[in-house]
Amino acid sequence: MGNTIRIGLFQQDIIWNDIFANQFKIESLIKGLSSLPDILLLPEMYTTGFNGTPGILSKKDLSGQLAWQQSLSVKYNICVFGSVIEYNQDTFYNRLFFTCSDGSYDYYDKRHLFGIGGESEFYSSGESRKIFSFGSIQIMPQICYDLRFPVWSRNNMGYHILIYSANWPSNRRIVWDTLLKARAIENQCYTIGINRTGTDGNSVNYDGGSAVYGPKGETLLLMDEKEQYAEVILSIDDLLEFKNSFPVYKDADSFEI
Fold first, then answer.
1. Which residues contact 73 (CB under 8 A, 6 or more apart)?
2. 62 phi-psi bin (left φ>0, alpha ψ -120 to 50, beta other)
3. How far apart are the C-alpha atoms of 257 and 22, rounded to whole Å?
4. What is the DSSP annotation of 139-161?
5. Are the C-beta atoms of 231 and 38 separated by less than 8 Å?
6. 71-83 tens-digit pLDDT
7. Phi, then psi, of 182 in degrees rounded to 5
8. Cα–Cα distances in angstroms (integers) from residue 50 to residues 111, 157, 201, 237, in the given order
9. pTM of the model as a whole
10. What is the C-alpha to C-alpha distance for residues 241 and 173, in angstroms, rounded to an integer?
11. Which of 249, 40, 29, 45 shows the shortest CA–CA distance to 145?
């Protein structure tokens, strides 16, 4: 099949502020799969839901989330990708962990905090863009509100896949659909948005819409509003063939890259 990657998306109905119940739900999903993907994608704050007041949660429980995700990766020989509330040196972060089967990990801290929702009052912003590597495949991680800021995802770092882990509410669904496709086209990459579904503890509704788009803006996967799991196989060879045959990036001005 050439240079491909198999990605699983769990569009989760997150149980509000119940870290262990959400962890149990995710592991139960993995146990029930007949075969496992290379990478499992989870929504933003997949153990709690989008929580604007993280201080009400146990700092001990928060600090154990990375270890749990690492153990899941090692136990099931799978990479796991998703954000959680991280408490580190008296500071809260909306931190996305990428854990792998050998116990290694990398992380990305959300850069653009959702001020309208009070996120900037309790969380610290990330300072740098990151690239995660899966063999030769390069993945750029982003979190939810980052989607509205295209310069932050500019593909001048040679990545193949752009992934947004999100809690994107249903009343702004058209923005989600439109910008995910735009990021795929402008960056000539695969773009994936993994969203949650259900209703959170603040009565905010989410209708899923997790999706995978190709570099031409073509829809490769689109999920409805239900909690569900789906997979997609992406060909990096096909991506590079298209990008080399239509090298838009070579015409960019210096300030654009």
1. 79, 80, 99, 100, 101, 103
2. alpha
3. 39
4. EEEEEGGGGG-GGGG-S-S--SE
5. no
6. 999 999 999 999 9
7. -65, -40
8. 16, 29, 9, 36
9. 0.97
10. 32
11. 45
Distance between terminal CA atoms of the chain?
33
**What type of residue sits at position 219?**
T
Quickly tell me which residue has 């929580």 as its tokens. 51
DSSP the chain: --SEEEEEEEE-BPPTT-HHHHHHHHHHHHHH-SS--SEEE--TTTTT-S-S-GGGS-HHHHHTHHHHHHHHHHHHT-EEEEEEEEEETTEEEEEEEEE-TTS-EEEEE-SS--GGGTHHHHBPPP-----EEETTEEEEEEEGGGGG-GGGG-S-S--SEEEEE----GGGHHHHHHHHHHHHHHHTSEEEEE--EEE-TT--EEE---EEE-TTS-EEEE--SS-EEEEEEEEHHHHHHHHHHS-GGGG--GGG-
Rounded CA gap, 144 and 134, in Å?
22
**The two structure tokens encoding residue 88:** 């580190």
Domains and CATH numbers, the chain: 4-256 (3.60.110.10)
130, 106 Cβ separation under 8 angstroms: yes
List, for residues 56-70, the tens digit of each pLDDT value. 999 999 999 999 999
Provide the annotated active-site residues.
44, 110, 144
Answer yes or no: is pLDDT of 257 > 60: no
Summarize pLDDT for 41-56 with one digit per residue, the tens: 999 999 999 999 999 9
Structure tokens at 120: 């900037």
